[in-house]
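Why Choline/carnitine acyltransferase domain-containing protein? Reviewers of the renewal asked for a concrete example.
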Amino acid sequence: MCNKYVIDLESSLTDWGKGEVKKCRISPDAFLQMALQMAYFRDSGGKFVQTYEASMTRLYLNGRTETVRSCSQESAAFVRSMFDSTATKETRIHLLNIAAEKHTQLYKDAMNGMGMDRHLFALYVACKGLGYESEFLHNVLTRQWTLSTSQTPHNQQTQVPDPNYPGFNDKLCPGGGFGPVSDTGYGISYMFPNNNRMFFHISSKKSCPTTDSSRFANYLNDCTHQIRALFDD
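Here is what the prediction returned.
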Protein backbone atom coordinates (compact mmCIF):
# COMPACT_ATOMS: atom_id res chain seq x y z
CA MET A 1 0.00 0.00 0.00
CA CYS A 2 2.79 2.45 0.88
CA ASN A 3 4.68 1.80 -2.36
CA LYS A 4 1.58 2.79 -4.33
CA TYR A 5 1.88 6.36 -3.09
CA VAL A 6 5.64 6.83 -3.41
CA ILE A 7 6.30 10.09 -5.20
CA ASP A 8 8.86 10.49 -7.98
CA LEU A 9 10.26 14.01 -7.48
CA GLU A 10 12.51 15.98 -9.80
CA SER A 11 13.95 19.41 -9.00
CA SER A 12 15.41 21.45 -11.84
CA LEU A 13 16.65 24.95 -12.59
CA THR A 14 17.66 26.94 -15.65
CA ASP A 15 20.56 29.32 -16.18
CA TRP A 16 18.20 32.05 -17.40
CA GLY A 17 15.00 33.53 -16.03
CA LYS A 18 12.26 36.10 -16.41
CA GLY A 19 14.72 38.71 -17.65
CA GLU A 20 15.07 36.73 -20.87
CA VAL A 21 11.36 35.92 -20.96
CA LYS A 22 10.42 39.61 -20.85
CA LYS A 23 12.44 40.13 -24.04
CA CYS A 24 9.80 37.94 -25.72
CA ARG A 25 7.20 40.56 -24.65
CA ILE A 26 4.92 38.05 -22.95
CA SER A 27 4.28 37.46 -19.28
CA PRO A 28 6.68 35.02 -17.59
CA ASP A 29 3.75 33.00 -16.23
CA ALA A 30 2.14 32.66 -19.66
CA PHE A 31 5.52 31.69 -21.14
CA LEU A 32 5.97 28.91 -18.59
CA GLN A 33 2.40 27.65 -18.93
CA MET A 34 2.82 27.37 -22.71
CA ALA A 35 6.05 25.43 -22.13
CA LEU A 36 4.20 23.10 -19.74
CA GLN A 37 1.56 22.41 -22.38
CA MET A 38 4.29 21.68 -24.92
CA ALA A 39 6.13 19.40 -22.53
CA TYR A 40 3.02 17.39 -21.66
CA PHE A 41 2.04 17.11 -25.33
CA ARG A 42 5.44 15.58 -25.99
CA ASP A 43 5.46 13.45 -22.82
CA SER A 44 2.01 11.96 -23.51
CA GLY A 45 2.46 11.33 -27.21
CA GLY A 46 0.26 14.17 -28.41
CA LYS A 47 -2.44 14.76 -25.78
CA PHE A 48 -3.97 17.80 -24.12
CA VAL A 49 -5.40 17.46 -20.62
CA GLN A 50 -7.30 19.45 -18.03
CA THR A 51 -4.77 21.76 -16.37
CA TYR A 52 -5.08 23.52 -13.02
CA GLU A 53 -3.19 26.68 -12.13
CA ALA A 54 -3.80 28.35 -8.78
CA SER A 55 -4.70 32.04 -8.78
CA MET A 56 -4.98 34.26 -5.71
CA THR A 57 -8.18 36.19 -4.95
CA ARG A 58 -6.72 38.59 -2.42
CA LEU A 59 -8.86 41.45 -3.75
CA TYR A 60 -11.69 39.95 -1.67
CA LEU A 61 -12.04 39.68 2.11
CA ASN A 62 -10.83 36.22 3.13
CA GLY A 63 -10.20 35.47 -0.55
CA ARG A 64 -8.12 32.37 -1.16
CA THR A 65 -7.78 30.82 -4.61
CA GLU A 66 -9.49 30.41 -7.95
CA THR A 67 -8.61 28.12 -10.84
CA VAL A 68 -6.99 29.20 -14.09
CA ARG A 69 -7.66 26.56 -16.75
CA SER A 70 -4.39 26.86 -18.62
CA CYS A 71 -5.15 24.39 -21.39
CA SER A 72 -7.15 26.44 -23.90
CA GLN A 73 -7.92 26.25 -27.61
CA GLU A 74 -5.37 29.02 -28.10
CA SER A 75 -2.59 27.22 -26.21
CA ALA A 76 -3.35 24.00 -28.10
CA ALA A 77 -3.05 25.80 -31.45
CA PHE A 78 0.35 27.17 -30.44
CA VAL A 79 1.60 23.80 -29.22
CA ARG A 80 0.53 22.07 -32.43
CA SER A 81 2.41 24.68 -34.46
CA MET A 82 5.60 23.92 -32.53
CA PHE A 83 5.37 20.29 -33.64
CA ASP A 84 4.35 21.15 -37.21
CA SER A 85 7.42 21.16 -39.43
CA THR A 86 5.60 23.31 -42.02
CA ALA A 87 4.81 26.12 -39.55
CA THR A 88 6.95 29.23 -39.94
CA LYS A 89 8.58 31.07 -37.07
CA GLU A 90 6.27 34.02 -37.71
CA THR A 91 3.21 31.76 -37.42
CA ARG A 92 4.46 30.25 -34.19
CA ILE A 93 5.16 33.66 -32.65
CA HIS A 94 1.72 34.89 -33.72
CA LEU A 95 0.01 31.89 -32.13
CA LEU A 96 2.15 32.22 -29.00
CA ASN A 97 1.09 35.85 -28.57
CA ILE A 98 -2.58 34.91 -28.96
CA ALA A 99 -2.23 32.06 -26.45
CA ALA A 100 -0.32 34.24 -23.97
CA GLU A 101 -2.92 37.01 -24.19
CA LYS A 102 -5.69 34.47 -23.59
CA HIS A 103 -3.86 33.04 -20.59
CA THR A 104 -3.24 36.48 -19.11
CA GLN A 105 -6.93 37.34 -19.49
CA LEU A 106 -7.96 34.05 -17.84
CA TYR A 107 -5.62 34.84 -14.94
CA LYS A 108 -7.02 38.37 -14.55
CA ASP A 109 -10.57 37.05 -14.66
CA ALA A 110 -9.78 34.53 -11.93
CA MET A 111 -8.21 37.20 -9.71
CA ASN A 112 -11.22 39.48 -10.18
CA GLY A 113 -13.86 36.95 -9.22
CA MET A 114 -14.83 35.95 -12.75
CA GLY A 115 -13.46 32.42 -12.68
CA MET A 116 -15.82 29.47 -12.99
CA ASP A 117 -14.58 26.76 -10.64
CA ARG A 118 -15.39 28.25 -7.23
CA HIS A 119 -18.79 29.27 -8.58
CA LEU A 120 -19.44 25.70 -9.73
CA PHE A 121 -18.33 24.37 -6.35
CA ALA A 122 -20.69 26.77 -4.57
CA LEU A 123 -23.55 25.51 -6.74
CA TYR A 124 -22.57 21.93 -5.89
CA VAL A 125 -22.59 22.68 -2.15
CA ALA A 126 -25.96 24.44 -2.48
CA CYS A 127 -27.39 21.42 -4.31
CA LYS A 128 -26.17 19.09 -1.59
CA GLY A 129 -27.66 21.29 1.10
CA LEU A 130 -31.03 21.37 -0.67
CA GLY A 131 -31.00 17.66 -1.41
CA TYR A 132 -30.68 18.06 -5.16
CA GLU A 133 -28.55 15.91 -7.45
CA SER A 134 -26.86 17.48 -10.48
CA GLU A 135 -25.27 15.10 -12.97
CA PHE A 136 -23.60 18.05 -14.69
CA LEU A 137 -21.95 19.37 -11.51
CA HIS A 138 -20.90 15.88 -10.41
CA ASN A 139 -19.30 15.29 -13.81
CA VAL A 140 -17.46 18.62 -13.85
CA LEU A 141 -16.15 18.42 -10.29
CA THR A 142 -14.94 14.82 -10.45
CA ARG A 143 -12.81 15.21 -13.57
CA GLN A 144 -9.12 14.67 -12.97
CA TRP A 145 -6.62 17.53 -12.95
CA THR A 146 -3.88 15.68 -14.82
CA LEU A 147 -1.60 18.70 -14.65
CA SER A 148 -1.72 20.57 -11.34
CA THR A 149 0.49 23.66 -11.46
CA SER A 150 1.29 26.64 -9.29
CA GLN A 151 3.77 29.50 -9.31
CA THR A 152 5.50 30.01 -5.96
CA PRO A 153 6.10 33.66 -4.98
CA HIS A 154 9.77 34.29 -4.24
CA ASN A 155 9.17 37.24 -1.88
CA GLN A 156 7.58 35.80 1.27
CA GLN A 157 8.99 38.30 3.77
CA THR A 158 8.41 42.01 4.32
CA GLN A 159 12.10 42.83 3.88
CA VAL A 160 14.25 40.95 1.37
CA PRO A 161 17.53 41.74 -0.40
CA ASP A 162 17.63 42.40 -4.14
CA PRO A 163 17.47 38.88 -5.66
CA ASN A 164 19.22 40.11 -8.81
CA TYR A 165 22.38 41.02 -6.90
CA PRO A 166 25.15 38.82 -8.41
CA GLY A 167 26.22 37.54 -5.01
CA PHE A 168 22.85 35.84 -4.50
CA ASN A 169 22.83 33.73 -7.68
CA ASP A 170 24.12 30.65 -5.84
CA LYS A 171 22.15 31.32 -2.64
CA LEU A 172 18.59 31.35 -3.95
CA CYS A 173 16.07 29.04 -2.31
CA PRO A 174 14.27 26.78 -4.82
CA GLY A 175 11.07 26.92 -2.77
CA GLY A 176 8.80 23.94 -2.27
CA GLY A 177 6.62 21.63 -4.30
CA PHE A 178 3.58 19.37 -3.98
CA GLY A 179 2.44 15.97 -5.13
CA PRO A 180 0.21 15.18 -8.12
CA VAL A 181 -3.53 15.29 -7.52
CA SER A 182 -4.12 12.63 -10.17
CA ASP A 183 -2.69 9.10 -10.07
CA THR A 184 -1.71 9.51 -13.73
CA GLY A 185 -0.62 13.14 -13.67
CA TYR A 186 2.02 15.60 -12.51
CA GLY A 187 2.29 18.17 -9.74
CA ILE A 188 4.39 21.10 -10.95
CA SER A 189 5.55 24.04 -8.85
CA TYR A 190 7.71 26.75 -10.43
CA MET A 191 9.32 29.98 -9.36
CA PHE A 192 11.09 32.96 -10.92
CA PRO A 193 13.47 33.97 -8.09
CA ASN A 194 15.22 36.65 -10.15
CA ASN A 195 15.96 37.68 -13.73
CA ASN A 196 18.52 34.90 -14.22
CA ARG A 197 16.94 31.73 -12.82
CA MET A 198 13.83 29.55 -12.98
CA PHE A 199 13.14 26.70 -10.54
CA PHE A 200 10.87 23.71 -11.14
CA HIS A 201 9.59 20.97 -8.83
CA ILE A 202 7.97 18.12 -10.76
CA SER A 203 6.29 15.19 -9.03
CA SER A 204 4.44 12.08 -10.18
CA LYS A 205 3.54 8.67 -8.76
CA LYS A 206 5.97 5.82 -9.25
CA SER A 207 2.98 3.48 -9.49
CA CYS A 208 1.99 5.11 -12.80
CA PRO A 209 3.73 3.49 -15.80
CA THR A 210 3.16 6.47 -18.10
CA THR A 211 4.63 9.30 -16.00
CA ASP A 212 8.27 10.06 -15.24
CA SER A 213 9.27 13.26 -13.44
CA SER A 214 12.84 13.25 -14.72
CA ARG A 215 11.69 12.74 -18.31
CA PHE A 216 9.13 15.54 -17.98
CA ALA A 217 11.76 17.88 -16.53
CA ASN A 218 13.99 17.25 -19.55
CA TYR A 219 11.11 17.92 -21.92
CA LEU A 220 10.15 21.09 -20.05
CA ASN A 221 13.70 22.41 -20.14
CA ASP A 222 13.88 21.67 -23.87
CA CYS A 223 10.53 23.34 -24.55
CA THR A 224 11.45 26.54 -22.70
CA HIS A 225 14.56 26.78 -24.89
CA GLN A 226 12.53 26.15 -28.05
CA ILE A 227 10.10 28.96 -27.23
CA ARG A 228 12.93 31.28 -26.30
CA ALA A 229 14.68 30.47 -29.61
CA LEU A 230 11.70 31.86 -31.54
CA PHE A 231 12.88 35.33 -30.56
CA ASP A 232 16.55 34.89 -31.40
CA ASP A 233 17.71 37.21 -34.16
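The two ends are 54 Å apart (CA to CA). This is the kind of structural detail the renewal will allow us to pursue systematically.
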